[in-house]
Design brief:
Belongs to the class-II aminoacyl-tRNA synthetase family. ProS type 1 subfamily. The chain has 15 helices and 31 strands. By secondary structure, the protein is α+β, with helices and mostly antiparallel strands. It folds into three domains: 248 residues, BirA Bifunctional Protein, domain 2, CATH 3.30.930.10; 130 residues, Alpha-Beta Complex (YbaK protein); 93 residues, Anticodon-binding domain (Rossmann fold), CATH 3.40.50.800. The strands form eight sheets. Strands 3, 7, 8, 9, 10, 11, 12, 21 and 24 form a nine-stranded mixed beta sheet that branches. Strands 16-14-15-17-20 form a five-stranded mixed beta sheet. Strands 28-27-29-30-31 form a five-stranded mixed beta sheet, with helices on both faces. The longest helix is centred in the first third of the chain and has 21 residues. The radius of gyration is 29 Å and the shape is globular. The chain starts with 20 loop residues before the first helix and ends with a helix.
Length: 567
């Protein structure tokens, strides 16, 4: 491709509204332009990278035995109503009506659509297992689109679905997809972790997220410093054991604590450690009120609360609800003398507190000398807190450390969540009707593009891994008005293109400094500069990633490029 004939609108300055490196560089290097909040045009360079990522995805999906199809982005509301997600999915689902007042959604995901397709065509166990996938634009009305294409309202996604007759078959399919994802992200040149995850609104069990390690990631990964264990912080179990103090119980005492509401304020005011305080948080769990207790130096993990009850919705009680149920403001909530209508559950760490401190459910008072097994009614002690750095790893090997990650892929064992709701059944080998057992597997293709840039850049621009670079070679005649440089550049361009290399020729009438700056921004792995020694048949070869450069005779150039890039 000749640079004068394509569309690469580079920028010298960093756009003011671009917060993260990938967004800044994609704008500056002429890869994307914003159309409206969270919606972008992918310009020619970005489109080439996306196609390379998609090709890697297709190759690995084919190896895993999946067949590609393409489903509509416009989905009728009736399918979502069958699954029960039309109202529960939330405001991120983009809804619209046609001229006949029929309701539709723009596809945020395609579980309902694929389930309806397969249930109408597959009736026997003999046609299972089945694996299908697509690469398609998705739509989600993000409340706060940010970080360029990392969190947009329109994005490119690969979604795959498997259908099985048995759980053993699902396990096999899940492992094939898991391996395919490891291969995909490795081939894209990413440093990533597969972490245990929560399935969220998708439903199902046994899920993993594929996280690209990055300081700007919105998710926290808890991982062992000595083993392969890794989990989203929401899902990491705590195996810490707590020693209970042998000190004698003291009497319960109500103490006035004016304007002392947080654990920090109360512990400082009463001169006790945070570990001695009991943090009490009122939740609404599927319309039922639950008071959750953790130690003062810990944080309540609402996902664990949700899993204790198998709930659909867990949310913090409002200040008004807290006042109505516990007769106090949130800063003074505690587990003593709580109505039987409110269930009290506690983290294991609370059971070890002797002579602790908690809210008195009366403003402005707290209790001291609190001993849970004597003073409160706790229905169960379970793991309810977020894991912390320094805690023992859940697999028993090493201690926990934290890292930030960008989610680029997610795999789920859906089970019969959708097939049961939508009556997607098959006849087993005994002629009995059974719900299909499903798996679901997604990759954010456009998000992967941005994640690659987040991990591969320097102060001058992008450092593309060879596998996904828009071009392999960037040929730059320094002065296109010089016949020798221009002609040699054209000859090299023709020869390398004919030999199967992807080549960008900078044939623009620009200053050398502009050409080199643009080349660094774009980040093509190998640059061939045709300069003053062109009449001697010598060019400069420079590696973008390392900055290493060589003077090479054009007679040896093909061998050198083959050495650097392969055939």
């Amino acid at each position: 491709m000749k640079q004068s004939m394509t569309f690469i609108p580079t920028l010298r300055e960093v756009p003011a509204d671009a917060e993260v490196k990938s967004h800044q560089l994609m704008l500056r290097a002429g890869f994307i332009r914003q159309n409206t909040s969270g919606v972008y045009s992918y310009l020619p360079l970005a489109h080439k990278v996306l196609k390379k990522i998609e090709q890697i995805v297709r190759e690995e999906m084919d190896k895993a035995g999946a067949s590609e199809l393409l489903m509509p982005a416009l989905q009728q509301s009736e399918l979502w109503q069958e699954s029960g997600r039309w109202y529960s999915y939330g405001p991120e689902l983009m809804r619209l009506k046609d001229r006949h007042n029929r309701e539709f959604a723009l596809g945020a995901t395609h579980e309902e659509m694929i389930t309806s397709l397969v249930r109408d065509e597959v009736k026997s166990y003999k046609r299972l297992p089945l694996a299908l996938y697509q690469i398609q634009t998705k739509f989600r009305d993000e409340k706060r689109p940010r970080f360029g294409v990392l969190r947009g309202r329109e994005f490119i996604m690969k979604d795959a679905y498997t259908f099985h007759a048995t759980n053993e078959s699902l396990d096999e399919g899940y492992q094939k997809m898991f391996t395919a994802y490891q291969n995909i992200f490795s081939r894209c040149g990413l440093d990533f972790r597969a972490v245990i995850a929560d399935s969220g609104a998708m439903g199902g069990t046994d899920t993993h997220e594929f996280m690209v390690l990055s300081d700007i990631g919105e998710d926290t990964i808890a991982y062992s410093d000595t083993s392969q264990y890794a989990a989203n912080i929401e899902m990491a179990p705590v195996i810490t054991t707590y020693e209970k103090s042998s000190e004698a119980f003291v009497d319960l005492k109500k103490i006035e604590t004016p304007n002392q509401k947080t654990i920090e304020e109360v512990s400082g005011f009463l001169e006790v450690s945070k570990e001695k305080c009991i943090k009490s948080v009122l939740f609404k769990v599927d319309e039922k009120f639950v008071l959750v207790l953790v130690r003062g130096d810990h944080e309540v993990n609402d996902i664990k609360v949700k899993n204790v009850y198998g709930a659909s919705v867990v949310e913090l009680a409002t200040a008004e609800e807290t006042k109505e149920v516990l007769h106090c403001t949130p800063g003074y909530v505690g587990p003593i003398n709580v109505s039987d209508q409110v269930e009290v559950i506690a983290d294991h760490g609370v059971a070890s507190i002797v002579n602790g401190v908690c809210g008195a459910n009366e403003e402005p008072f707290h209790y001291t000398g609190v001993n849970i097994d004597r003073d409160a009614k706790v229905s169960q002690f379970v793991d309810l807190r977020f894991i912390q750095e320094g805690d023992a790893s859940p697999d028993g090997e090493g201690t926990i450390k934290f890292a930030k990650g960008i989610e680029v892929g997610h795999v789920f064992k859906l089970g019969t969540r959708y097939s049961h709701a939508m009556n997607a059944t098959f006849l087993d080998e005994n002629g009995r009707s059974q719900p299909m057992i499903m798996g679901c597997y997604g990759i954010g293709v456009s998000r992967t593009l941005a994640a690659i840039i987040e991990q591969n850049n320097d102060e001058n621009g992008i450092l593309w891994p060879d596998s996904v670079s828009p071009f392999q070679l960037h040929i730059i005649p320094v002065n296109v008005k010089n016949d020798t440089q221009r002609d040699l550049g054209e000859t090299l361009y023709s020869n390398f293109s004919r030999n199967g290399y992807e080549v960008l020729l900078d044939d623009r009438q620009e200053r050398a400094g502009v050409k080199f700056a643009d080349s660094d921004l774009i980040g093509i792995p190998v640059r061939i500069t045709v300069g003053k020694k062109a009449d001697e048949g010598i060019v400069e070869v420079k590696l973008r990633k390392t900055g290493e450069s060589f003077e090479v005779s054009i007679n040896d150039l093909q061998v050198k490029i083959t050495e650097l890039l392969g055939n």
